[in-house]
């Protein structure tokens, strides 16, 4: 734990990790620009992060791309953001309104909208009561909607992920990632590459109302 904390205990490395929270793979040059540091120092920071299992590197042709090592690292960063931004006197969120409403948490949806969807999944018995698995009905419904669920995921098929701005759960795991992909592919949600903010389209508002009885306005 001390070694992991030490690897993160640098503003430049934190900036790199936060940039990778959008779920994309970035080059070292892109990360240096995002973190506001010189390219000559970026490699040292990335080496530190790689050595402690926080990021991974993929070589493709002449280029090397970096991404978070996994969803558990994204969850760790989300929790750290919540602790660092919360007031000690009261748990009133300081999160900017546009991010609190809807954002990405690595490869799944987070924020107020994601929490409401999670509550709807529980209410409709698409999830088990502990949120650790899809029910047979839930799996069938997601597949019918067009979600591409991995029959043999290498990570948790489904899990509750604590939302740091709402202090409640949203849907993580393979099911959470599949649901976000579906919403983006159908044009129900839109985002800007490199940013975590998510917007709901008019067709998305209709879909959320139809599927989950949620008023996204």
TrEMBL record:
UniProt superkingdom: Bacteria
Every HTH arsR-type domain range: 1-88
GO biological process, any: response to lead ion
Entry-linked InterPro entries: ArsR-like_HTH, HTH_ArsR_DNA-bd_dom, HTH_Metal-responsive_Reg, WH-like_DNA-bd_sf, WH_DNA-bd_sf
An annotated Gene Ontology molecular function: DNA binding
PANTHER family, A to Z: TRANSCRIPTIONAL REGULATOR-RELATED (PTHR39168), TRANSCRIPTIONAL REGULATORY PROTEIN (PTHR39168:SF1)
NCBIfam families from the UniProt entry: HTH_metalloreg
Protein name: Transcriptional regulator
